[in-house]
Amino acid sequence: MRLKLLVITPWTDDWMGRVRRFPEVKFLKRKLESLYDYDVVAPGERPPKDRYDVIFVQSERAYSHGRKLRREVGARRFVVAIYGVFERFPLRRVFWPLHMWRYRHLDAAFKGGADLYLITDDGSRGERLAERYGRPYVMLPVPKPPWGRVGRLEARTALGLPPDGPIGGFAGALNKLKGAHMLENILKRSRGTYKLAVIGDGPLLPKVRRLAERYPGRVFILTPLPYERMNLFYSAVDFVLAPYLYGNKTAVVVESLTLGVPVVAFRAHSSDEIIRHGWNGFLAENFSVEEFAHYTVRLATDPILRETMGGAARISSEGFPTWDARITTIVQSLHPL
Q1: Which of 10, 102, 225, 317 is found 20 to 30 A from 202 (Cα to Cα)?
Q2: What is the pTM of this model?
């Protein structure tokens, strides 16, 4: 008899196949369908069954509802997955209200307890929070992508980018946590040495659009791509800008290095665990836009350096974990002991 699993998640549209924003869902569904009789509900929704063996909560935002339902449905196991942004510094200089909102949810999730916490190892040091509260946890690796490169000209044509000249890329949420507010100053200091391709969405999208209007032909805002087509973006750009202000073992950095694209980043938490300065990318001091821009110019103006660092990036990614390893860890964690 198959176990009954209840998934409580903010990403119900992904689970229902209506959108493809969160790739973990796609890979996780394949595993769960052969092992569990599972249902998916959003925070606040009632589950369709009265009894479940396991509750899996995706995100601290769904924790309180999951804890309440555990008692009601008699679940034998309660597992909580947490994704990113734990450390308070240096975010208080950037987006303190948002960070405090996140931190309150995280604080409540760890205080309330669970049988196990699954913490994404993106460099934001979530294990410190788990250890502070004395909670059991497992670190989930950020996996390398399952796809490879395509031809540069093919990729640029598909994305509507110029066929010639160096292009830097920015991918991710357009907010201050991702450093999107620094793109304008970085671009100003780049002295027109490269074009910038931006893919993402968020509260700073209007600002990025104004930037594209101010620099016509130099800034290109791309239509968001489903995960399985993101290799077009990495194949089209010559280097990636990652001015993130927290952990830098993020999906974008992992994907860039896997596809042989050097990365320019800040020395945020854990950056040096994945980016070796001067070998597969460059690391600027936090908030030093001038130093960050200097490294982008070096990559833009030196094709031999780009090629050398691109090769080093591919080599550095050889030991990165796969999606199968991450999903296997999740599924094993869900099984009642």
Answers
A1: 317
A2: 0.90
